[in-house]
């Protein structure tokens, strides 16, 4: 039976107008694919959305994010002990001038927590040389604020008596590096979009610090050998598992991580990543590892170990490429980099005072730091929680795994041990050579190229912010929306600082 003329006509009109309707109601949207859901990938998604809205002409694009694990956050992760206690297993502390982290915390309604060993609000420090404590500060078990203040003053005096005015020179070195780093929060008007890490570091006056090692930088700044061998080494071993041979910049960042006012996020720093992803309209693929990225005509084709294939106009790698097996076609070229492995071991039990040549557990400092001595089996041991005098939870950082026999010699009682082997951060080696932000001269980007400058949550966010601006200007041909929050953010700096 022939269809009536009117309905044939209607169908024809519909068919003819279909491409038009499609084009109008759903303009073809580009896809930005992000590999990695740590703070780098999540803040990239956030800044891409922030800088392309609320501008109605803003770039329209979808974001797909791939995470090989079942949870987001990467190196921001917590560990659960059988007691029900939850501790930071990876990135744990933030600096009072980590303004993006502060911004995210506020935006996501997260709660700032000032870290303290719950054993005391001012943990005692001991510097261990594998035979004896070469230096110890006082501990304070009192909850009374005035007692804590007195102990804190006494400890400052003890530290000053040992290291003298060199401490002020160290402080000046750190503050100068922080001052330069703050330039990355300047508004877009005054801050270029950087196409390379070198350019980004030179603009902020930080590049030279990556060309020499920390030991030389600090000697030139007039620090005493004792301060370098002891306190500075203790800090670089705790924060980067490495010696004074790290670059001056990584060293300055590490030393900044021992300043006053450090903080973290109640419930876990990983919530920054999950919150940013949730509010950035991201198509998140958990348990999906990307094994290859190929440029095929106009697209990047991302293939996953699940056998899926995704087309993206822009691809961003937000994970260190040093220990992952992603095949690139055409191949990319980046400088060889080794990751420093840090073994984080969480132990519930009690330390053995005899191991430290002491008579009682109470004599062992709550934070045991170490100096560079060959074969010293750990970098640091700190009390995370004091359940009672003979039952505590400790965190140990070491360069090699802590096996059972070793733990049995250090602990007189051990109820539980959880071990995590982190491919933690670059093994810093000045002069640093940086991988490109743009891996292929097209639209394949690499956030973690910046990690050779320093590896922190904040530096990942700063690098990701720059990559977001690069993507928006290079691919979408638009300068990032000037109505970004950064304008008001710059003036918020002091408020955030005061909030803490
Ligand atoms: C023990 C330790 C302590 C630290 N302490 C601090 C600290 O106190 N303060 C601080 O600021 N920083 C600290 N850091 C450094 C900080 O954790 C990192 O600099 C930061 O978290 C890096 O974030 P990212 O997003 O760049 O990378 P990551 O957090 O490593 O995220 C990358 C993500 O990509 C995923 N991935 C990798 N390959 C693939 C693939 N092929 N397909 C899909 N997904 C993939 C990974 O699973 C991971 O989730 C510490 C790190 C460690 C390990």
By CATH, the topology of the domain at 78-266 and 338-426 is: Polyamine Oxidase, Chain A, domain 2
Q: What is the highest CATH level, the class of the domain at 78-266 and 338-426?
A: Alpha Beta
- Low-pLDDT parts are 1-26, 482-500
Biggest beta sheet summary: 7 strands, mixed
The total of beta strands comes to 20
State the share of residues found in helices, binned by percent.
Answer: 25-40%
CATH architecture of the domain at 78-266 and 338-426: Alpha-Beta Complex
Oligomer: single chain
Bound heterogens, unique: flavin-adenine dinucleotide
Number of helices: 13
Keywords:
disordered N terminus, 500 residues, FAD, alpha/beta, 22% strand, five-stranded parallel β-sheet, Polyamine Oxidase, Chain A, domain 2, disordered C terminus, 33% helix, globular, single chain, binds flavin-adenine dinucleotide, FAD/NAD-bd_sf
Summarize the structure in words.
By secondary structure, the protein is an alpha/beta fold. It has a domain at 78-266 and 338-426: Polyamine Oxidase, Chain A, domain 2 (Alpha-Beta Complex), CATH 3.90.660. The protein has helices at 5-25, 39-52, 99-107, 145-163, 166-181, 197-203, 214-220, 225-240, 248-256, 270-278, 404-410, 457-474, 486-499, and strands spanning 30-35, 61-66, 78-80, 86-88, 112-113, 125-128, 133-136, 264-265, 282-285, 290-296, 299-304, 309-312, 314-317, 327-329, 339-351, 367-370, 380-388, 391-398, 411-426, 444-446. A 7-stranded mixed β-sheet has the order 7-6-16-17-18-15-19. The structure holds flavin-adenine dinucleotide. Flavin-adenine dinucleotide (FAD) binds at residues 35-41, 66-69, 74-76, 90-93, 289-290, 318-319, 324, 326, 342, 344, 422, 424-425, 448, 455-458, 460. One of its GO terms (molecular function) is prenylcysteine oxidase activity.
């Amino acid at each position: 039976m022939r269809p009536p003329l009117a309905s044939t006509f209607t169908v024809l009109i519909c068919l003819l107008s279909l491409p038009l309707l499609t084009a109008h109601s759903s303009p073809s949207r580009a896809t930005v694919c992000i590999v990695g859901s740590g703070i780098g990938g999540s803040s990239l998604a956030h800044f891409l959305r922030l800088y392309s809205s609320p501008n109605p002409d803003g770039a329209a694009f979808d974001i797909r994010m791939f995470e090989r694990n079942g949870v987001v956050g990467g190196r921001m992760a917590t560990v659960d002990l059988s007691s029900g206690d939850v501790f930071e297993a990876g990135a744990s502390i933030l600096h009072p001038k980590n303004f993006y982290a502060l911004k995210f915390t506020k935006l996501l309604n997260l709660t700032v927590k000032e870290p303290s060993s719950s054993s005391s609000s001012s943990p005692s420090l001991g510097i261990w040389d594998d035979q004896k404590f070469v230096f110890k500060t006082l501990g304070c078990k009192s909850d009374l604020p005035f007692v804590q203040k007195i102990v804190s003053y006494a400890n400052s005096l003890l530290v000053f008596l040992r290291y003298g005015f060199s401490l002020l020179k160290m402080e000046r070195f750190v503050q100068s590096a922080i001052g330069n780093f703050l330039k990355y929060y300047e508004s877009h008007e005054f801050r270029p979009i950087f196409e390379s890490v070198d350019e980004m570091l030179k603009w902020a006056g930080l590049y030279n610090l990556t060309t020499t090692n920390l030991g030389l930088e600090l000697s030139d700044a007039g620090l005493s050998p004792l301060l370098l061998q002891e306190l500075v080494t203790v800090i670089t071993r705790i924060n980067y598992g490495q010696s004074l041979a790290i670059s001056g910049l990584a060293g300055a960042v590490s030393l900044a991580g021992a300043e006053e006012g450090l903080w973290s996020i109640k419930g876990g720093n990983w919530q920054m990543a999950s919150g940013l992803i949730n509010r950035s309209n991201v198509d998140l693929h958990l348990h999906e590892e990307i094994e290859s990225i190929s440029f095929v005509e106009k697209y990047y084709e991302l293939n996953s170990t699940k056998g899926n294939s995704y087309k993206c106009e822009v691809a961003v790698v937000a994970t260190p490429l040093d220990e992952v097996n992603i095949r690139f076609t055409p191949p990319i070229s980046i400088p060889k980099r080794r990751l420093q492995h840090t073994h984080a071991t969480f132990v519930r039990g009690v330390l053995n005072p005899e191991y430290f040549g002491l008579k009682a557990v109470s004599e062992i400092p709550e934070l045991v730091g170490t100096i560079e001595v060959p074969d010293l089996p750990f970098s640091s041991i700190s009390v995370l929680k004091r359940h009672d005098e003979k039952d505590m939870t400790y965190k140990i950082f070491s360069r090699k795994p802590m096996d059972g026999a070793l733990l049995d010699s250090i602990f007189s009682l051990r109820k539980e041990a959880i071990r995590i082997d982190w491919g933690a951060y670059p093994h810093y080696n000045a002069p640093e050579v940086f991988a490109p932000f743009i891996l292929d001269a097209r639209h394949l980007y690499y956030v973690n190229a910046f990690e050779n400058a320093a590896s922190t949550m904040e530096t990942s966010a700063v690098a990701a912010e720059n990559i977001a601006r690069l993507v928006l200007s290079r691919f979408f041909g638009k300068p990032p929306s000037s109505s970004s929050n950064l304008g008001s953010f710059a003036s918020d700096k002091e408020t955030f600082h005061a909030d803490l």
